[in-house]
Design goal:
275 residues; 12 strands; alpha+beta; Arc Repressor Mutant, subunit A; Nucleoside Triphosphate Pyrophosphohydrolase
């Protein structure tokens, strides 16, 4: 059949039928990360920080009763993807006014058994201990433990009642940039391809704290240098030497005239984010 030629855009739009093209749906998924103090029963001990992520238990098929990241379908005629992410975060967790940044787009053909679904993921950062809003009943914080070697990454999630793990393989994509794709090897508890989203987001965060100030979205207004260093160490999953850490953050913080006292420790100077 010979292709019809049009002389004006108006003429073309009269014949245009969107059903002539492949249809797909779009979603926004949110990886909400917190690095916060663990519950401490002995006030004389130094408080430790841990990384947590927020998961939601699915009520419907597919993947009913499995855990997943907060997510939902884009209302294509009403909102942008970022507006969708904020709406979904509020409706599924009860949280709002939280830092959001676009992460990656996931477009594997069979990532959703219902239809072709392309998901744009967002990373959200917060200190969960400073939240004033109550999360929904089907949402829960899980502490994250990561073990990795040259080839595999094992991640364990634990909310104090439920604990499970999943395993991913690192596949080198580009030698020149040291970029990896992640392939799910073991996963019995998380829906969709969310193990990949979780690991990708954590890796992205590790890279960004090296050259941005993104970490301060997890900090209170005033903090000690020790508290800030703990957050860096939890995200990077390694111990930092004090002198090296001080050089990293020297231009990012400013010392105040406030002091942190009590808790069985010597008073410590409080700092704040410089910008």
């Amino acid at each position: 059949m010979e292709k019809k030629l049009y002389s004006t855009e108006e003429e073309f739009l009269k014949d245009y039928n969107p059903l002539d093209f492949d249809q797909l749906s779009m979603t926004a998924d949110i990886l909400l990360i917190s690095v916060s103090e663990e519950d401490q029963t002995n006030y004389r001990k130094t408080s430790k920080k841990c990384m947590s992520i927020l998961l939601v238990k699915r009520k419907d098929f597919p993947f009913k009763d499995k855990w997943c990241l907060p997510g939902g379908f884009l209302e294509t005629k009403k909102e942008t993807l970022e507006e969708c992410a904020k709406r979904v975060l509020k409706s599924e967790t009860g949280l709002s006014n939280i830092y959001l940044e676009q992460l990656y787009t996931y477009d594997s053909i069979n990532r959703d058994p219902r239809m072709r679904v392309v998901s744009t993921s967002y990373i959200a950062l917060v200190d969960k201990n400073r939240l004033t809003e109550m999360i929904n009943d089907n949402a829960c914080w899980f502490d994250v433990t990561i073990l990795s070697d040259e080839r595999f990454v094992d991640i364990t999630l634990d909310n104090g009642t439920v604990a499970f793990s999943f395993k991913l393989e690192k596949v080198l994509r580009e030698k020149t940039t040291d970029r990896y794709d992640f392939k799910i090897v073991k996963n019995d508890y998380l829906a969709f391809d969310h193990p990949v989203v979780i690991l990708s987001g954590i890796e992205r965060l590790k890279n960004k704290i090296e050259y941005t100030d993104i970490v301060f979205n997890m900090m209170p207004e005033y903090f000690t240098l020790g508290e800030l260093q703990q957050v860096y160490e939890v995200i990077l999953n390694k111990k930092l030497l004090d002198p090296a850490f001080r050089r990293i953050i020297a231009k990012k913080v400013v010392k105040t005239n406030k002091m942190k006292t009590g808790e069985g420790h010597r008073p410590s100077s409080l700092f704040k984010y410089k910008h």
